[in-house]
Design brief:
The chain is mainly β and 406 residues long. Helices cover 3% and strands 55% of the residues. It has a 14-stranded antiparallel beta barrel.
């Protein structure tokens, strides 16, 4: 995301994401809707279908879930970052944040071959919060983006080998962003502008699962773009400045995603899985911010994000009837094209994720999943004025999930 001038005060408006809450997926996408998938760094989640949380990764996977099932989960994401100028001066404090993401999934049989499911989760998000003032105050102070997605789903078992799935996404987005650093007279020093906006929109997701043989299963899933028009206001922390708040709007498209995954059972204890996921971040090429009063363009920001790939490899080991252990690693490309487009709100970079987790079978009806992942971010240089330096970042993700079979 990038904040640019809006009128004479250089006010900020939303353009996209960052890394604060968006720890696992590059850009501002979130994969952390499933603690059972977290243990393998989300490798192969579009085909493994361990529980009803497959609604997010691949709706066709619901045919692998027996009977009725309720899955409730929570994920804590803690990110940490430090900006250092080329002169070696640190600034901004730690803009990272600890964020909690709840999720809820339900699956039930309509008949022998058709499953109905509902999912409630957060597919996109971010939160970063810098000290004020700092070297990049004019780019950003607080960035807080939240989404909630309601996802009714149908899955059909066509035959013993092929399953198909379709989901409808109704998504809510809410954003609060602020920036400062406007010392130009007659405006007072320390002036901070804050933008708040929200919208709702529709999308869809599709899935396919194919049982190639008794030991090998392949999955393919697709999630559509969703187009928003965020409407809201820009306000100032000084009520003496005339003309504020002002009504504005900004169009934002969240990207589509496609994933190809495979899982292979080596024996009664070991299963390995892998996936490749493409995200169409090139839809985020620019942001035009307009005044609601007359439709005039208040600012136009070029982002030039590029499509990005994620690759995951994981394994699960069933050590007993009660315990299953999981391990995984993933590589995620950043959509930020170069240092000139890496801003305070998007110090995003390529990253490697390493994860482990497990499932404890409390009883035939109740399961407990836990997962942990550490994310290593590649050092991220920026040359977007007034910032000339680099970011050093890392993140930790911890997930807990309870599953009840009816």
């Amino acid at each position: 995301m990038k904040l640019k001038a809006l009128g004479p005060l250089g006010l900020a408006v939303l353009a996209g994401g960052g890394y604060g809450s968006s720890a696992q997926a590059a850009g501002f996408a979130l994969y952390e809707s499933s603690a059972s998938a977290l243990g393998t760094a989300f490798a192969g989640q579009a085909v493994v279908a361990q529980d009803a949380s497959t609604i997010f990764a691949n709706p066709a996977g619901l045919t692998q879930v027996a009977g009725s099932q309720l899955v409730a989960g929570a994920t804590a994401i803690n990110s940490s970052s430090q900006y250092t100028s080329t002169a070696g001066v640190k600034s901004g404090g730690d803009p990272g944040a600890t964020t909690f993401l709840p999720s809820l999934f339900y699956a039930m049989d309509l008949n022998r071959d058709v499953k109905l499911g509902f999912g409630l989760y957060a597919p996109f998000g971010l939160k970063t919060d810098y000290d004020n003032p700092w070297a990049g105050s004019s780019q950003g102070l607080l960035s807080d983006l939240k989404t909630v997605n309601f996802n009714p789903t149908l899955a059909w078992k066509v035959n013993d080998r092929l399953s198909l799935g379709l989901g409808v996404d109704y998504q809510y987005i809410e954003a609060t962003l602020s920036n400062g650093g406007f010392p130009t007279p007659p405006y007072p020093a320390g002036l901070v502008s804050t933008m708040k906006g929200n919208d709702t929109a529709w999308g869809y997701n599709l899935g396919l699962v194919y049982q190639a043989d008794d030991a090998t299963r392949v999955g393919l899933s697709y999630r559509s773009t969703i187009d928003y028009r965020l409407t809201g206001t820009v306000s100032l922390n000084n009520p003496l400045v005339p003309g504020y708040p002002k009504a504005i709007y900004a169009d934002l498209t969240v990207p589509d995603m496609a994933s190809l995954a495979i899982a292979h059972r080596l024996d009664d204890r070991w299963t390995v899985m892998a996936d490749a996921t493409w995200t169409g971040w090139s839809v985020f090429d620019k942001l035009n911010v307009q005044l609601a009063a007359n439709g005039a363009t208040a600012s136009s920001t070029i982002e030039n994000w590029k499509d990005a790939w994620r690759f995951g490899l994981g394994a699960s080991y069933k050590s007993s009837d009660a315990w299953t252990w999981r391990f995984g690693v993933a590589y995620d490309q950043t959509p930020v094209p170069d240092a000139a487009h890496r801003t305070a709100r998007i110090p995003d970079s390529d990253r490697i994720s390493v994860a482990a987790g497990g499932r404890y079978t409390i009883s035939p009806k109740n399961l407990l999943d836990v997962g942990y992942m550490h994310i290593f971010f590649k050092d991220a240089p920026t040359t977007d004025a007034p910032l000339t330096g680099s970011y050093d970042s890392h993140a930790d993700v911890l997930g807990l999930q309870l599953t009840h079979n009816f």
